[in-house]
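Re: weekly structure request thread

Next one in the queue (178 aa):
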Amino acid sequence: MNDTDAQQDLTTQAPAGAPAAGPPEEPPVDMEYVDQVIDRYGGQAHFALQMLLDINNEFNYLPQQALRHLARRVDMAPSNLYSIATFFKAFSLVPRGRHIISICLGTACHVKGQPQNYKRLQSDLAIEDGETTEDMRFSLQSVRCLGACALAPVMVIDDDTHSRLAPDQMLDILDTYE
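Done, posted below.
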């Protein structure tokens, strides 16, 4: 794949796991913030990973417009940025909700009833794994382990861990997040 193909991929293809209907439309991007990030790292390509992390943290995904701009400013092939963005699970190429829900489906959580919690959560939010609610409030992702097996079943919303979950607790927990 050459750089032109990679740049086209950045703008026309949804990453694996995106909904079949295609990625949600990208909201406007504050390019002034992107420039501040680039300037903070001296516009040096070897800081690309950190710049991507900063941009992803600000927008909760990596906007295509920001990726193209970053590639131009640091004189880096778009395909190289795309490779980094698709290698690390921390990055998303599609807009995500304001709150990221990671629900553990590891062995301890599974044994303690997490499949029922997960089905309830999917039903309540009307989304599947890897999707975002229409109001952009929540994105849902399953993970194989959150490292809190003694607290099973567990889910993490943003940086908050919720443990020993029961299906009837799910909506009450979600209601605490605007």
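Helices lie at 3-12, 31-40, 48-59, 64-73, 78-87, 107-111, 114-125, 170-174. Confidence is low (pLDDT under 50) at residues 1-22.
Next request, please.
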